[in-house]
Structure formats: C-alpha cells, structure tokens
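Z., the sequence and structure:
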Amino acid sequence: MKGISLPPFRTNRILSRIRNRHFALLDLLVFILSVFLAILIRYDNFRFLHAHFNEIVTVFSLFLVVKFTILIIFGIYRRMWVFAGVDELAQLSIAGGVILFAEIILLAVLEILFDNKFAAVPNSLIIIDSFVSLAFISASRFSIRLLKRARERFLLQSEGVSVVIAGAGNAGIQVVSEIQKNPRLMMNPVGFIDDDLSKLKLQIRGLQVLGDRRSLVHVKKNYGVKKVIVAMPTAPGDVIRDIIQKCDELQLEVLTLPGISDLIGGKVTINRLRSVKIEDLLRRDVVETDLERIRQMLNGKVVLITGAGGSIGAELCRQVLTGVPSKIILFGHGENSVFEIEQELLLRISRQQTYQNPKTEIVSKIADIKNIATLELIFKTFRPAYVFHAAAHKHVPLMESNHLEAIWNNVIGTKNLIEASIKYDAEKFILISTDKAVNPTSIMGGSKRIAEMLTLAAARKYKRKFALVRFGNVLGSRGSVIRTFSTQLENGGPITITHPEIKRYFMTIPEAVKLVLESFFLCNGGEAFVLDMGEPVKIVDLAKDMIRLAGLQEDSDIRIQFTGLRPGEKLFEELFNDGENYSKTSHQKILIAQNASEFVHEQLISWVQRFENYSPNWTHAELVNAIREIIPEFANETHLRENNPK
C-alpha cells in the first residue's frame, strides 16, 4: 500500500516555528471550550449552564489552574512534539488521569467547605471534560507529527527509489522507520517480503507484507522496485544466498544488515546498511555464549596474548578487553600490527564508562617466542595468569619451502612458551590450533600437531589447566582465500583455485574467538577442544558467489582457473585424528576429544630436543622423517612426490 499523497506544503518552516508557548495558548482555548462541549454532551443543551452559571465558572476556573499546574509538573511544555511517540502519549495519558483525580478531590473539598454549594456540578461532567480536554491536547500535539509524516511520505513517493524490505521482523521495521524519517536517503519503501506466511497481507508502519521470497518477481513488476534491503540478521547463509540469486536474476540491487553478532549491543540503523558480502552467504547459526561468566574470570587478571597483531590474536584482545583484566600484554613479532591493535584498544578504553572501576593497562611487547631470554623477562615482570597462544606460521605452501622456520616457530617457540608458563605459574594456557594438524600432510600441519602434543603433555605431567582449541579457516584473515579472490577480482582475474573438488571449513573471526573463550572457561587441563565448523564449503562455489556479488559473470567477465594442489595441501580437511573419541561439551558448538592425551608419546620431549640440536642443518627429507617418528600418520605430499616422481 502506498502512502498518503499530499502536495509539498512548506510544512518544515511552519513546524519549526511552533513552540510550547503556542501550545499553552491553544490549551487555554481548549480547556474553555471543553467545558461547553462537556455540558452539551451531558445535557444535550445549555440550560444547565444558565441555571448554575456561577458555580460552573468558579469550579472550572479552579480546574483550569489544576490542569496547567499538573501539565507543567509532568513536563508537557518542555517536549519537542515534532518527535512525539508512544512515550509522550503515555505521559499525556498519565497526566490526564492525575488531572481527573485532582479535580474530583477538589470538588469534594469545595462541597465540604461551602456547604454543598457546588453539589449541582456532577462528577460525570468532570469526567467528560477531562476526556475531551485530553483528546484535544493530544490531537493538537500529534498533528505536528502527522503533518511531518505526511510530508515525508510525499517526498518518498515523489523522489525516492522504490525498495522492498526482506524481513518483517524487528530489524526490518526499524529499517523502514529510519527510511520514513529521512527523505534524504531517497528511498521509498513499498512493502515487506517475509517467509512467515502468518504475516501475509498484514500492515506494518503503513506497509503491507506482500509475500515471501518467491514473490520478488511479482513485487518488482507491480511496484517498480529497484532495490531489496535484506533485514534478517539471524537468517542462515542459504536463505541470504537464495535471495541474492533471485535479485541477481531480476537485476535488483541488494543491501543488507550485518549478522546479529555484529549488531549485539547496537541499534539497527540505516547507516549500517551495506552491500552483501561473502560472509553473509556463509552465515552460520548465532553463537550463544555466557559472556558474563567469562568476563568474571578475566576481571582483574593479567592476560598475555601471543600473535596479538594477527587476525585471531587481535580479536582475542578485543573480546578479552570486555572482561576488564588488569593488564593485556600484546605479544607479537610484527611492530605495525601490534601498534594498530594497541591503538584500537586504547581508543576503546578511553570510550568505556569505567570511572568506577580500574581501567585495563595495555602493554605492548615486540618479541619472538623463539627467544627464551625475552620470554623469561616478560613472564618474570608481569606474571600472566592466562596465556592465549595464537602466534604461529600458518601458510601451508610457504612453510614447505621454509620448513626449518616452521619447526622453530611453531614447535620450539610453543615449547618455550609452555615452559615459561609453567615456571611462572600461569593458571591457564590455551593453544590456538588448526584442522591442518589433523592427520597432517604438510610441514605446517605437522608442526602444529607437535605443538598440540606439547600442550597436552605439559597438562598431564604438571597437572596444569593447559588445553588446545582446534578449528578451520576463518573468514577475512590475512592470507585467507577470500582476500586472495578479492584481489584477483580487482585485477580482472582470473580467479585461481587449486582443484575443482577442494573444500574447506569456514568460520567468522568473532565467532571463533567467542568459542575459544568459552573453551577457556571449560578448560580443566588436557582437553583438545574442537569447534563445530558446520559443513565444509566447496571453494569453487565460493569463487562463483564472489564473482556474482561483484556484479560480474563467470567466463565472460572473470575466468576460474585450476592450478593443481600446492605442496602440502589436502583436498579435504578433518577435525579429528584417527582414533580420537569425541563427545559434546556443555556448549553445543564445542566438542572435545576425550582421549587426545593418549596419543602423546613418552619420548616427545627428547624428540623435540633433537629439533633444537640439529634442525638448522636438516634437509626437507630429513625433517619429514624426524616428524614421522613423532607423528606416525604424517604423510607429507612434497616428500612423497620427490621420492615418487611418477
């Protein structure tokens, strides 16, 4: 249904000049006229007025004082009525009730004081007068809002681009409200679409629910729609993907709101609208976490985060900060990335309303986990209670050609950090691991699997609350396939994929970190937590979605080129090692490999010490053989190809 069509009166100038003193004068006139109208309603004529003129003038003159006094007390003359809403209506109604009660009490007092001289004035007349007065003063004020709304609707119809809102829930209603309040957005909402058929044909803010997703063809044809705003922050990715595909076929521009995890704590507003991103198409169920209990654990503690400038490390810093620890030690090797997250955290702290609580101190340390002396100094100085180990070399092909660095950083560095955490009595240690550590085929995966074993061995030997959290790829991280594809699209292609059947698990960075913190809370020592990654995504489908979102066509605009698997790369990633038995935890998105510690060999530490003594001179083949002693299931593809060239 389209809005009311009115000529473009110069209402803005008129409305802007109306002040509360004008309403006070209007109220005076209303209160006088309401007496006559009340008498007419009560008696059908004015004979009662002639018969009791003096009493009525006396009583209602006093009532006039009562009305203005109560309206002033309730702040009715201090409001901007051009923005009036439900709160203002409620305030007027309460004031009207108080006025009626006060007038009845006043009339009773007058009858007692003047020997029933005013008994002829019935309470019913007072009630009618009160309702008439309230109706008129409410109408006078809300007419301002009505005129403003009528002007907005006229401007929307005459100048705005027709849009339909996908989602008739709270988010969709707030988006429509924002659009209707702001004609400068140049959008004219014509209605909603929603898959909940119980909402079909219902009116919401003057707009009708026109149908479900399948009705887009009809809506475009009948209403001239040019844009679709997807206002479904909790909808799964397949629903968003279906809407995008339909809009693509109909050549409709699509805007959307972020997912619910990005909106928590903030109001849904029109300035959050943006183009659809690949993250929307991969959107997973909302992660529910008990943030309050996690924050209570973090409160007042010293927290050390390695790899603080990386994608996961930086998000850990952001979410840990909400618990107001006494210190967050930003431990990283890249000075620029550490500086950036440091400045972001300092800005967040400056905006926090923490004047009643001590603020978190941010300590930045540019250091290398391979440097034992530096680690010793940092742990001795700050004595961190909690350690989140996110620092690692993660690039699979790059680590194949830099195999020694992978071992030194991911294995020896982790060993150093664990030993420092034990020596200086860290309460908890959480290793951020990867699905590539499961049945590894790459040097990187093998090094992370050994890091897992070191963590589990320390938990078992020293009875410490040390654990690991294992998950797959995160969207938007540095070096991620999403960023690679985006760069290739910007350069005109082609998009390169190693294999048409390759699949990967994906999770957003905030989601992964929320679950890491939940695992941190559940940690009692020796656990291998595994995050529920959902279903793996085919990389070629991801590429096709990104091409479509860029407004391009596959083949004609952008080619997809298959280049072959890279060194150490697998077609499919796994989340559990062979023989690991897993079960659910108290959190539905977190699993646990109960027997993970059983796969840690007694000679692990002595084997790892061999890396420290000999690895600077080892060839790739020698390193592969050394890793295989620790991880029997290790099958390095690079090594196999070199030894089996056919």
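Residues 11-151 form one domain. Residues 1-9, 260-270, 639-646 have pLDDT under 50 and may be disordered.

Let me know what you think.
H.
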